[in-house]
């Protein structure tokens, strides 16, 4: 169950990063409310996941999902630039997330 909490927390991190961008420095009410609610939920689920998962694995996976997810939201929704180096970096982050997950299995 902890891994499910962690993945949902990572997805909420993507949401709060995107809504923070849309809030224009917290000057727009609805994106600001979404940002704060998603942050609260994301941190809450991360804390639940950390009850049983190792700190390093939980935090690495959470930030990795957020980083790669925000990159792809930026590309797909905000028309940000796609470059070889950005895609390589995303691939390395994803590889790191996968390795961290498998290195955190008991025994």
UniProtKB/TrEMBL annotation:
Protein name per its UniProtKB record: Guanidinium exporter
Main location: membrane
Bilayer topology term: Multi-pass membrane protein
Presence of the UniProt keyword Translocase in the record: no
A GO-annotated cellular component: plasma membrane
This protein's UniProt keywords: Cell membrane, Membrane, Transmembrane, Transmembrane helix, Transport
GO biological process: xenobiotic detoxification by transmembrane export across the plasma membrane
UniProt organism field: Hyphococcus flavus
């Amino acid at each position: 169950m902890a891994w499910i909490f962690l993945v949902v927390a990572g997805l909420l991190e993507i949401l709060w990063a995107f809504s923070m961008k849309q809030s224009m420095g917290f000057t727009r009410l609805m994106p600001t409310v979404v940002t704060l609610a998603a942050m609260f939920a994301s941190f809450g689920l991360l804390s639940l996941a950390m009850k049983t998962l190792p700190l390093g694995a939980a935090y690495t996976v959470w930030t990795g999902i957020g980083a790669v997810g925000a990159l792809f939201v930026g590309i797909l929704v905000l028309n940000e630039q796609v470059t070889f180096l950005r895609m390589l970096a995303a691939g390395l982050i994803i590889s790191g997330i996968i390795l961290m997950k498998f290195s955190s299995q008991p025994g």
